[in-house]
Design goal:
alpha/beta, 5-stranded parallel beta sheet, 11 helices, 5 strands, about 45% helix
Length: about 270
């Protein structure tokens, strides 16, 4: 959305601000939201992007719910990428003049779902029950470090502008429900669950250290009457019901009204 200022002087100030950001393509990519407007950027992996679900992904559903609650304009920029890990997201945020950088700079609400793909190389070892915690220790340490860097980069892009950051965990870093029962050994399902809890703990700790908000996805999914009913046919991604649940959980964790003081995480 391009905001047109009625006065030439104000327009020149905006032009100077935009010009100072090298390579910016449009004013809408770098201007902060106008008063009463909310801009949401969703950063993350295939859960964020809505892979394997012929449905609206949770970021758009969240934006619709937020608009209905607040009665203000809400725009959503879904930058989720299937297969993305925390190192890849950090690289996206560090890439100057990239769509992710522009979208994050312009957003006053940031949704983060990242971490599951950091352990993809150990999928078979974990889900067969052959992997103990030690086999993913390097990846876990890297994830922990990357989460802190990702949050620091988001703040650097946002400056001192008020920003609500919502970080979701996972119901499972690998497959779940009926598909997991068919494909994984019993000990593998236990190991996958343990790795998920450990991953969620790292995400929650990063959120606490940054004054961001951790949104628990694990408990509502795992405590549901039938988690399979929340998953796509691959057992690895949410279906429409799963995305709707994530959107509701995010809305419940969103301050009402949104914070107006600098560096407040929600």
């Amino acid at each position: 959305m391009i905001h047109t200022l009625p006065r030439l002087a104000a327009g020149l100030l905006v032009l100077g601000f935009v010009s100072a950001i090298a390579g910016a393509d449009t004013v809408s990519e770098v201007l902060p939201p106008t008063p009463g407007q909310v801009r949401v950027v969703a950063l993350g992996d295939s859960v964020t992007s809505g892979s394997n679900c012929d449905c609206a992904a949770f970021p758009q559903l969240y934006g619709d719910l937020l608009h209905n609650r607040s009665a203000v304009p809400v725009t959503v920029d879904n930058q989720g990428v299937a297969g993305l890990d925390s190192t890849g997201l950090l690289q996206q945020l560090d890439q100057r003049n990239s769509p992710v950088e522009h979208a994050t700079t312009a957003a006053n609400v940031v949704l983060l779902t990242i971490g599951a793909n950091d352990f993809g190389d150990h999928h078979d070892d974990v889900t067969s029950g052959q992997c103990t915690g030690d086999c993913v220790s390097d990846e876990y340490e890297q994830l922990t470090a990357n989460l802190g860097r990702i949050l620091s980069r988001v703040h650097a892009l946002r400056g001192d502008l008020p920003t609500t950051i919502l970080m979701t965990g996972y119901w499972n870093v690998f497959k779940d429900g009926d598909v997991a029962k068919q494909q994984y050994t019993p000990s593998g399902r236990v190991a996958s669950d343990q790795l998920t809890v450990r991953t969620n703990n790292a995400i929650a700790a990063a959120a606490r250290a940054d004054d961001a908000t951790y949104v628990d996805i694990y408990t509502p999914f795992e405590d549901s009457a039938d988690i399979t009913a929340l998953l796509a046919s691959d057992g690895d991604h949410p279906n429409a019901a799963g995305h709707a649940l994530i959107a509701r959980l995010l809305l419940a964790a969103t301050p009402n009204p949104l914070p107006t003081s600098p560096r407040q995480g929600g």
